[in-house]
Amino acid sequence: MADVHGDKEAGLEDDDFPDDGPLDPEEPGEGGEPSSGGDEEEEDDVDGLASFLESEILGSSDEDPIDQEPRQQEEDGDAAKNKRKQGSGPDGDGYSGSGSEGEKTKRARREEMRRQAKGKAVAPQIDTGMFSNIPPELFLQIFKFLSSEDLISCALVCRFMNAAASDETLWRRLYCMRWGLASNAKFRECAWKNLYIQRDREDMVEFVRNTPTEFKEYYIQMQAAKRSQIPHPSEVNDDKVMLDKTVADQVSSWKNSRGLTDEAVKGHSCSGNTCSYTQIGDAYICEKTGRVHVCDDACREFVLDQSSGLLLCTISGHCFERWLCPDDEWDADDTFQDLQQAGVVDEAEPFMGSGRYARAIMLGYNCTDEKELEDALGLC
Amino acid sequence: MAAAADSSGDGGTSSGEKTIVLVSSDNSARFEVREAAALLSQTVRRMIDEAGADASGDGITLPDVDAKTLAKVLEYCNKHAPASSSSSAAEAAPPAEGEEDLERFDREFVRVDMGTLYSLVTAASYLKIEGLLNLTCQTIADMIKGKTPEQIRKTLGITSEFTPEEEDEVRRENAWAF
Fold first, then answer.
1. Residue A174 pLDDT level (bands cut at 50, 70, 90)
2. What angle do CA B94, B99, B100 make, to 5 degrees?
3. Cα separation of B73 and B124, whole Å?
4. Most A CBs within 10 Å: which of B62, B136, B161, B173, as the mutation test of the A interface?
5. Which of A190, B2, B50, B90 is the most buried (most CB within 10 A)?
């Protein structure tokens, strides 16, 4: 289909980009340049063909009138402070600062600390519009409900959303929902977003190659539909989809032994203070509802502990260091021991409860050496 | 108001249930609500635990929630609160209303302007009310679903600070086969 290939660019230019002019930002997925810059290492042709067929069939319909926003119009001085892209090492102070004094200052300071403590290069808050002071964590909560397609759209909205929409936990969930998790997959080393996109592309290529011509259209549509798969409400707060097969089986049998079903329980808020958990591998199961929390480097359930400056997962009791490099293996026990010896963690945390978190801390206090600590934590 | 036999000095409704007083950030409004409703908030629950049983006579001040938002949040809590007022059973007991009724209520509840929605989502996050947080986040997510970036910007009122080069780069990074 050399013809098609050759005409592809021209054809697409005509159909999908009716508005000439600089760089139309309105189209979420270009579809037009799979071989732009020759980045694709292999199977350019098939890839290109796949994307061409797709865009022809799916057609990026663009109903709304495209207002050419004056791109030169940047936000005021604040924009200068917002120039931080995602994924560039430890956080500095790209934080734009809320500016306004009074009651906002306290919250802003808290958020800044939180952001710095996370050590991830998340862009500062959206500076414009309604959501000018929304914290990054809250956006994660919202993005949990979106499909991969929508996340990509969001990434193109502004810098802040770009960073938030590229968060690895979101993509991990989407990946696991769509393809499940191989037993040997290593959470810590995966860039889930890239993995997802890559696998999606591979799938598409394979489909195009292997399906008879008369079915191509249909299959391509089917494939593309998978990208608009949204997480089921029950999956949004329960991490069970992210378990590999062996652990998942163990979790299931544990749940069965307790008479817990897979149904989501409404109205229950898991937290380290109110629930007790059983641990199976990286999974922590709430003993009341069977809800699963997967606690590893991608854990997002942590809170900032003011006294120690560490991030503590309230469910598992794990500590995360302030500037966490995703590739480093961290030793939670060491950290805790250090804390203890430094006398930093020396009084009952205000939010002690009956949960695992509380018990972990209490046990930790009484240990004299690392071995004892390890044993103690293993008992929790 | 007759004090309930099991209350420790808090005001009680005439039906004998324990209530809790919540105060908005600017101190302008005090709301007395059933304990079961107030405990839907993990933050409130924690504050009560910290403060001890009889310190809540004065009311619990919520520094990050203003009066208008607090009123709306409590509207949600009252509707979704379990029938039983005993705090240990509060989670396990089903809400007093029927399932469908609640869904209808939820749908109406979030039909508000963006400003209110935003206040609700931050309040729900601060107060750690999972149901409300899910509801509001889902609502905002629904507003984003299926839209192009430009449409999203319009809906949420965001201005993009991308320079043309950055925009290009981001689009390339995110260029899928579609």
1. confident
2. 165
3. 8
4. B161
5. B90
- Nearest Cα to Cα of residue A27 among A35, A37, A36, A18: A18
Inform me whether the C-beta atom of residue A94 falls under 8 Å from chain B C-beta atoms.
no
ipTM: 0.79
> Is A283 strand, coil or helix?
strand
What percent of chain A lies above the pLDDT cut of 90?
0
Q: Which helix (H) or strand (E) holds A293?
A: strand A292-294
pLDDT single digits (tens) A133-167: 677 788 888 998 998 888 888 888 888 888 888 88
Cβ separation B144–A107 shorter than 8 A: no
The CA distance from A190 to A171, in Å, is 10
A194: its two tokens:
């890239």
* Closest CA in chain B for residue A132: B158
The answer to whether the CB of B39 falls within 8 A of the CB of B85 is: no
Q: How many beta-carbon pairs under 8 angstroms link A with B?
A: 205
| DSSP type of residue A230 | P
Q: Is the dihedral of CA A152, A153, A156, A158 positive or negative?
A: negative
Q: What is the DSSP letter of A303?
A: E
Q: Are strands B19-23 and A319-320 parallel, antiparallel or unpaired?
A: unpaired
CA distance A177 to chain B (A): 18
Yes or no: say if B128 and A269 are a contact pair by the CB < 8 Å rule.
Answer: yes
The DSSP element (H or E) to which A270 belongs, if any, is none
Answering whether pTM is above 0.90, one says no
Structure tokens of B88? 């240990």
Question: CB distance B161–A82 less than 8 Å?
Answer: yes
Kindly list the residues from chain A whose CB atom is less than 8 angstroms away from the CB atom of residue B46: 273, 350-351, 353
- Is B127's pLDDT higher than 80? yes
Contact indicator for A45, A35 with CB cutoff of 8 Å: no
Strand B30-34 with B19-23, pairing: antiparallel
**Over the range A125-140, which residues count as b (16 or more CB within 10 Å of their CB) and which as e?**
bbbbbbbebbbbbbbb
Rounded to whole angstroms, the Cα distance separating A340 from A55 reads: 59
Please name the residue ranges forming H helices in A156-259.
159-165, 168-179, 192-210, 213-226, 233-236, 245-257
